[in-house]
């Protein structure tokens, strides 16, 4: 940054260094129309992280609209393609020996970061509007890319009784009506492969994010986000922010 001499230069930082820096606009356009305008006017934008996208976009509207208590203690479970674990993990998977048993992947799904020192947590905490820092448990599987992030919410943490999937879906549908890269799964449509499987890689190599909600009003709900960690979770989102900063349609060059 110290090498930039022209004050009109616009910068998008894709690292984790400035995502909660108040001097930088947070690069997630779907947060609100006002936030999208902030990105459009900004000269400094910190691109969002891949894991936080799903949580923020699933949870924030529910808190903002008074449906979910901001004091809810959330536990986030995330499964990513191994590219989501960073350069070292990509190298480890590339060098993995053949599977020990026929039919097995070269590497099985594994949890990582069990010490709790996760870079996405401050970002999630700040922009989801949660009052408490969430517990975040990431894992990776043998797919190169793709991501599913699930956030269970017990019924008692909704502000009023009787909040089911349809109510959440209606809040999301209204909230994201001006978000062209957002896909919402109608609870009536199911949307699962063979009626029961939600595949991690269904949005791989695209720039969309999909939200779905599962469960019932009596026990609670599971909020699920699915995206390509390298698309909407990284480079695709950066291009979306770039388009806004340069005055283009936000979807230019994206699919």
Offer a concise description of the structure:
This protein has 255 residues and is α/β, with parallel strands linked by helices. The chain has 6 helices and 10 strands.
- Class inferred from helices and paired strands: alpha/beta
CATH topology: Dihydrodipicolinate Reductase, domain 2
Low-pLDDT ranges: none
Shape: globular
How is this fold's topology laid out?
Layout: E1 11-13, E2 25-27, H1 33-41, E3 44-47, H2 50-64, E4 75-81, H3 87-94, E5 110-111, H4 120-128, E6 135-141, E7 147-154, H5 165-175, E8 182-184, E9 209-216, E10 220-227, H6 231-245
Parallel strand pairs: 1-3, 2-3, 4-6, 8-9
Antiparallel strand pairs: 4-7, 5-6, 7-10, 9-10
Helix pairs in contact: 1-6, 2-4
Describe the 3D structure.
The structure is a single chain. The chain contains 6 helices and 10 strands, in the order ββαβαβαβαββαβββα. It is an alpha/beta fold. The protein has a single domain (51-230), classed as Dihydrodipicolinate Reductase, domain 2 (2-Layer Sandwich). The strands form 2 sheets. It has a 7-stranded mixed beta sheet with strand order 5-6-4-7-10-9-8. A 3-stranded parallel beta sheet has the order 1-3-2, with helices on one face. The protein is globular, with a radius of gyration of 19 Å. The model has no long low-confidence stretch (mean pLDDT 92).
């Amino acid at each position: 940054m110290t090498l930039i001499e022209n004050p009109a230069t616009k910068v998008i930082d894709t690292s984790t260094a400035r995502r909660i820096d108040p001097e930088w606009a947070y690069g997630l356009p779907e947060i609100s129309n006002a936030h999208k305008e902030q990105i459009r006017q900004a000269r400094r934008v910190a691109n969002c992280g891949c894991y936080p996208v799903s949580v923020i976009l699933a949870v924030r509207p529910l808190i903002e609209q008074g449906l979910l208590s901001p004091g809810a203690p959330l536990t986030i479970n995330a499964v990513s393609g191994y590219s989501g674990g960073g350069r070292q993990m990509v190298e480890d998977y590339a060098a993995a020996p053949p599977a020990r048993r026929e039919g097995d992947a070269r590497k099985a799904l594994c949890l990582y970061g069990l010490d709790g020192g996760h870079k996405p947590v401050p970002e999630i905490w700040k922009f989801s509007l949660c009052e408490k820092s969430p517990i975040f448990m990431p894992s990776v599987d043998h797919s190169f890319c793709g991501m599913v992030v699930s956030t269970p919410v017990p019924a008692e943490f909704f502000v009023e009784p009787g909040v089911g999937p349809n109510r959440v879906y209606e809040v999301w549908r209204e909230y994201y009506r001006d978000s062209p890269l957002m896909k919402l799964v109608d609870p009536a449509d199911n949307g699962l492969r063979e009626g029961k499987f939600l595949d991690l890689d269904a949005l791989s190599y695209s720039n969309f994010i999909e939200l779905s909600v599962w469960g019932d009003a009596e026990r609670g709900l599971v909020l699920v986000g699915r995206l390509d960690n390298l698309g909407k979770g990284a480079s695709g989102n950066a291009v979306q922010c770039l388009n806004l900063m340069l005055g283009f349609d936000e979807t230019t060059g994206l699919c």
